[in-house]
Amino acid sequence: MDLTQSVPPPAAGGRAVLAIDAGNSKTDIALVALDGAVLGTARGGGFRPPVVGAEQAVGALAPLVARAALTAGGPGPARIGHISACLANADLPAEEEELTDALAARRWGAGVTVANDTFALLRAGVADAGEPTGVAVVCGAGINCAGLGHGGRTARFPAIGRISGDWGGGGFLSEEALWWAARAEDGRGEPTELARALPAHFGLTTMYELIEALHLGVVRATRRLELTPVLFAVAASGDPVARAIVARQAEEVVALAAVALTRLDLLAEPTPVILGGGVLAARHPLLDDRIRELLTVRAPKAEPRVVTAPPVLGAALLGLDRMGAPAGAHARLRAQYARD
Questions:
Q1: Would you say the C-alpha torsion 211, 217, 219, 223 has a positive or negative sign?
Q2: What is the pLDDT of residue 14?
Q3: pTM as predicted
């Protein structure tokens, strides 16, 4: 299974990669020379083709591409040899193909490669030399997993939400915390400190007040993600309900990684398991320690690594791979992001 959808390869004269990491909450653009030097960057809002359509979502990238080009001294299509786009919501082959076509129509570069944004984390976490193999689990606003095995084999999941069997991510965890807190307050569920801590985060006293505020829009729905760190803080204090939610998240992360490793026949050899996204990058001890404990049981040879570098680095590395960048380019690019 090919991990990308592509249009024809880069033109011979192209001297730069246009790297795009477009997530649900933010988008990063980088123009990178073939020697690994970062020429220009730009950052913008979230990328949501399911809401606005592929054409409009890609069109919204245009000002960011122009801004990155301006900071780089104005490289145009003749200088951009390849577009390496790692995109949220590119979950199915049909979505990748549609987004590839939309990017190609913009004529920003001679070639286009589209992959799900999980592959950006994966590429950022694996070595630059030799055959890249590994599994990446992203746990940010949502959760997803992708793996790369020998011979370019891939493993991935639809990651569309509950209908595709997903459990977890910051958005889900905040909803789960609210559910348990509401039931604790009205007596349907077990007592938990969440019933006090969640409304207190918004300056409220009871869960009833918080439920009303969320329902009526007094507290914006987008602010629910603020409750995920509150959940981890309550869990760290020893609250059994909160700890159980965190433990379940660890189980889901390891289940994804173990299944991907199994599909790729990598369980028997040392293989990096790259962990990233806001929830995992925060290195909450309860979650981090439990993930490592469970991996020793289900995948003893797995080598867990938390990657906090911006995912656009992975998109750029994929672009350099595609263009056959010279020796030292990958290391130079990594060094620049390590300084940021």
A1: positive
A2: 60
A3: 0.89
